[in-house]
Design goal:
The complex is a heterodimer of chains A (116) and B (111).
Chain A: E1 5-7, E2 10-13, E3 19-24, E4 31-37, E5 44-50, E6 53-56, E7 65-69, E8 75-79, E9 88-95, E10 106-107, E11 111-115
Parallel strand pairs in A: 2-11
Antiparallel strand pairs in A: 1-3, 3-8, 4-5, 4-9, 5-6, 7-8, 9-10, 9-11
Chain B: E1 4-6, E2 11-14, E3 19-25, E4 32-38, E5 45-50, E6 54-58, E7 61-66, E8 71-76, E9 85-92, E10 99-101, E11 105-110
Parallel strand pairs in B: 2-11
Antiparallel strand pairs in B: 1-3, 3-8, 4-5, 4-9, 6-7, 7-8, 9-10, 9-11
Classes of the chains: A mainly beta (116), B mainly beta (111).
Chain lengths: 116, 111
């Protein structure tokens, strides 16, 4: 079974530029998550999708971040314009369902973003 | 107060010893608890999950949960250098499977 795929793996941009990340979850997984992990911290949930609907985006900085999940499968996360403090690893994860609280989340390799 | 608190470490143990990693959480409504391991430059991978008070063992790993004390721990027996990583405690408050992560404890196992 293929795991969660993410691209690109690394990205360097200058502040005020825009950037987009792509995620393909494990086949058949209904729920997709985007996390931000700043160096030395644990992952912080940015947005959670169930199929193509948003379940939780309470911690997404909506003035600069946006995300969509096309047809309930792939997802893109965009930052426009980027700030220095957006430098982090962006992790995508997926789980089979949303209901219940015992779902394992499977993480992709992440995208390392450096904003100069 | 952080929702999930862990000692950042580093926790240094000799090879073959027991490593004890601790985590406290603030929301009494939390339902399930997870330990993820994260090697440097890699993504988190699930080690253990626990949902009921008491101990849960899986190989060299034992998770312990005490909901009354809002405390969850991970014991690693016969620690190996390959166990050197950051261990993330994550708490699910129920509902939509939203995980709240601690900042992680860095474990170093030295030969």
């Amino acid at each position: 079974e293929a795991g969660v795929a993410q691209s690109p793996r690394y990205k360097i941009i200058e502040k005020r530029q825009s950037v987009a990340f792509w995620c393909n979850p494990i086949s058949g997984h209904a729920t997709l998550y985007w996390y931000q992990q700043i160096l030395g911290q644990g992952p912080k949930l940015l947005i959670q999708f169930q199929n193509n609907g948003v379940v939780d985006d309470s911690q997404l900085p909506k003035d600069r971040f946006s995300a969509e999940r096309l047809k309930g499968v792939d997802s893109t996360l965009k930052i426009q314009p980027a700030k220095l403090e957006d430098s982090a690893v962006y992790l995508c994860a997926s789980s089979p369902r949303t209901s219940g609280d015992q779902e394992t989340q499977y993480f992709g390799p992440g995208t390392r973003l450096l904003v100069l | 107060q952080k929702e999930v608190e862990q000692n950042s470490g580093p926790l240094s143990v000799p090879e073959g010893a027991i490593a004890s990693l601790n985590c406290t959480y603030s929301d009494r409504g939390s339902q399930s608890f997870f330990w993820y391991r994260q090697y440097s430059g890699k993504s988190p991978e699930l080690i253990m999950s626990i949902y009921s008070n008491g101990d849960k063992e899986d190989g060299r790993f034992t998770a312990q949960l005490n909901k009354a004390s809002q405390y969850v721990s991970l014991l690693i027996r016969d620690s190996q250098p390959s166990d050197s990583a950051t261990y993330l405690c994550a708490v699910n408050r129920g509902g939509y499977n939203k995980l709240i992560f601690g900042a992680g404890t860095r474990l170093a196992v030295h030969p």
